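Researcher: Checking consistency across runs. Here is OprD family outer membrane porin again:
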Amino acid sequence: MIKALLPMATIGIGLGIGVISPAQAVQSQQDANGFLEDSQFKGLYKNFYFYRNFLNEPSSRQNYAKEWAHGIMLDYSSGFTQGTVGFGLDVQGFMSQRLDSGKGQAGGGIGLVPYKEGTDPKHGYGRVNAAVKMRISKTVLKYGDMYPENPIFGTANNRLWPQTSTGFQLISNELDKAVFEVGYFTAKNARTSSHHTGDIGFWNLLAVNPQTGKLVRARNVKYAGVTYRPFDGLSLIYYGSDFKDVYRQHYAEITYNQPFNPKLAWSTTGNVYRTLASGNDKAGRINNTTWGLKTSLTYDVHKFTLAYQQSNGNQAMPFEGAYPGEYSYKWLVNASMYNDFDAANEKSAQVRYDYNFTNWGIPGLSFTTRYVKGWDADYSHNNAKNTASYMGYKYKHWEYNAETKYVVQSGKAKGLSFHVRYGKHRTENNSPLRDFDEVRIITQYPFDILAMGKALF
């Protein structure tokens, strides 16, 4: 598999990592204390309210969507058995319950509860995930259900519970300052599904297989990547992937952070995605390059950010998701609450401001606001075999976000968080996208089950 991916590296070498980290550093097997001795058993309670008010809708269409649900996630991660080769097990369980979402209210892209058009949403859902793992030195191999976090094949966690993917993942930290990752996955579940699909779907490749009449899906994805930090402040990254018979994708990024004094710092990020059709070209012609630049200046409790992003190609930048509308995530500099501004030939710019209330004597309280404008989106030359619903559209649009979050810093409620997010999206020039205002209210409380047990006994 690695050999098959090596030709991808000829396109470019990695240029950095932004806020999200891909493969994490691996602890050495020499430090293993045992399967149970190094175990962790944690939980998370989550409550999610989502309201979206659609504007300028035809009278035949529902003009709002509303869902409210809560649930608990239990996450057990064993240590590794001692010896040259260590073995372990990871298990997660999710349980959720609908609080408010009746027929006619659910849907609209919200996706907190299982739902089919014209029916009542289910009252709840749940699933159990498991993965076995093996460690040699500073290299870990896993098989089962997991949450890969990299720019090529990631896990969406922007609703009640995250997506999971089934396959193999190898992470190695044998070389100083470098982390290598290789993955091979064959299935991915939807955000509200109790099972995996058996293959991998794509959000914005609405290509239909003429033999089956179904949306194009990949049988598997394989990828390899490296993250390298040669010195403090600089991160370099490269990932290459192949979604079988659909597309090949390459990612490169550079991030440089420069602190000037304890209060003043500057950071900049540049990244690029290169996507080309692969194998049998199930989704037709794909040829897209999307790149972005972002720079931030931090002074004390203030942070100012400017970003520019451009999509070059007659198709939007494709990306995987369990089903259409089931987002994965991409490391695009202008990715926002609703839109990623990666349509065919689209250009976009962002201005953002972050504020930390520490100086007010309220550590843990933060505020963020941003505005992103997209223009020159043009599907007039799009391949008719993919993103068919956008054929011929040329449009502009913009999005505004404002959010505040508070995290309890100490005491028995430490980690409890309250997060309020507001979003507004508007379109121009007969866009296929929808105009709406939305509010998301998210409450989370993490807890350590083993620590609670020790305190009781």
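Researcher: Does this match what you'd expect to see?
Model: One thing to look at in this run: The CA atoms of residues 26 and 184 lie 19 Å apart.
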